[in-house]
Design brief:
Helix 5 (184-198) packs parallel to helix 7 (232-243). The N and C termini lie far apart (54 Å). This protein is α/β, with parallel strands linked by helices and 396 residues long. The protein has helices at residues 56-67, 82-85, 88-94, 104-114, 184-198, 202-212, 232-243, 261-275, 291-300, 317-328, 348-359, 376-395, and strands spanning 5-7, 10-12, 15-17, 22-23, 27-28, 33-35, 38-41, 45-48, 74-76, 99-102, 120-122, 128-130, 135-140, 150-154, 159-161, 219-221, 248-255, 281-285, 301-311, 314-315, 335-342, 362-363, 368-371. The chain binds MU-OXO-diiron.
């Protein structure tokens, strides 16, 4: 069994998941996902993270093949979420003498998930581990994505093992390094992965990036997606921009519509945005597009315009669900416009206004409310809302 050597004596032993429909049982995986694990051969042998339990058989075979009869000395656990820690118990059964390297938070989770309490080697911020010619260093990165997350750095080869950071959805179909593949689809899926999984943790990501800025890093080994080398700076800049909640010039229009009347308002707003020079306009019917993709666009673009019919004196349920996901992620600094409709009693507009207030977002343009079908004055008001958003974006 062949495993790619991605740097001197550093082998990729991760796996591809082409079966799971939903990551975390929430987020669609049309192109699957990889669980990356790396095996370092020096005087000591060191595995960095494992894989989802569903793939432990192939993972253990790959690991044994690279070890080629050598014992496994260390397992470094950068992240305990089960997509990476799921195979630890089986690994320990196969290599009972392996010492597990983590921090105090890692070990609490290791006991909770796997009942493992012995053979542990605890590290703290800045600690090192000599494994032969290399002295690995550890940096804590709490809340990038869980509290126990840490990064491992190899100063000799200038490789960073970054847990989920810089990860993407998408399987690795042959190529592992970014030099071997077309990266555009992975960069796109990096946005969606970030928005879905890491989006709430912008400040911790910024802190981690500041820590990394002091290191000379030539290769980034994330736990998902390609190994970054040639395009490393691009991957880091995407993370930097997203974690500062900097949006590009553009507008996401997210709307619910039962019979198309609210949708006509959205169409008018989009028309006015384009007429006034905005090229990045994405319209999402929240009943049709999974929230995973809408969140990606909310993180990508500076403008968000939301529309909702009044439904049982509330927001349209799918729109409400989307707004809740945005609120959980504490997305900052968006320009917000909104519109709504009703048949006999309107409630959506005041709920959208309350959402904007909770988010502390700037409201742009006059909110538009429509009773029953679209009339000329409502149509004109929608055009005015689209123009106001376009003008505001052009001012920035
Ligand atoms: Fe890929 Fe937070 O686990």
């Amino acid at each position: 069994m062949k495993s790619k050597e991605i740097a001197n004596n550093l082998f990729y032993v991760g796996v591809n998941d082409r079966q799971k429909e939903l990551f975390e049982n929430l987020w669609p995986l049309p192109s699957g996902v990889s669980y990356n694990s790396y095996l370092l051969l020096d005087d000591k042998t060191v595995l960095i993270d494992t894989v989802d339990i569903c793939y432990s058989d192939i993972f253990l075979k790959k690991t044994a093949s690279v070890l080629n009869g050598r014992p496994l000395d260390y397992l470094i656990v950068n992240h305990m979420e089960p997509d990476h820690s799921g195979s630890i118990r089986l690994l320990r059964q196969q290599y009972p003498d392996v010492r597990i390297v983590g921090n105090s938070k890692t070990f609490g989770m290791l006991e909770g998930y796997h009942g493992i309490t012995s053979g542990l080697h605890e590290v703290k911020e800045g600690d090192t581990l000599q494994v032969g010619s290399r002295e690995l260093r550890f940096y804590m990165a709490p809340m990038v994505h869980w509290p126990e997350v840490m990064f491992t750095y190899d100063p000799k080869e200038k490789v960073l093992f970054s847990a989920d950071a810089f990860g993407t959805y998408g399987t690795l179909d042959g190529g592992i390094l970014d030099t071997e593949i077309h990266i555009a689809p992975f960069l796109e899926e990096m946005l969606r992965y970030y928005a879905n999984i890491v989006g709430k943790y912008g400040n911790p990501v910024q802190k981690a990036l500041q820590k990394l800025s002091a290191l000379d890093i030539r290769t980034i080994c994330s736990t998902h997606g390609p190994v970054w080398r040639e395009h490393l700076a691009k991957a880091v800049s995407v993370y930097d921009r997203l974690s500062r909640y900097e949006g590009e010039e553009g507008v996401t229009i997210a709307y619910g519509s039962m019979y198309g009347h609210t949708e006509q308002m959205a169409e008018a707003i989009a028309y006015a945005l384009a007429e006034n020079g905005i090229k990045n306009i994405v319209m999402h019917n929240v009943s049709k597009t999974h929230a995973s993709y809408i969140l990606r666009d909310v993180f990508r673009y500076k403008g968000l315009i939301a529309g909702s019919p009044t439904y049982s004196n509330q927001l349209f349920p799918e729109l409400e669900s989307l707004l809740s996901k945005i609120e959980i992620r504490e997305v900052k600094k968006r320009l917000f416009g909104y519109f709504g409709s009703f048949t006999w009693a309107g409630a959506s507009l005041k709920r959208l206004a309350a959402f904007a207030e909770r988010m502390n977002w700037e409201v742009v343009g006059e909110p538009v409310e429509q009773k029953q079908g679209l009339k000329n004055d409502t149509y004109e008001a929608c055009l005015a809302l689209g123009k106001a958003m376009a003008d505001k974006l052009k001012e920035l």
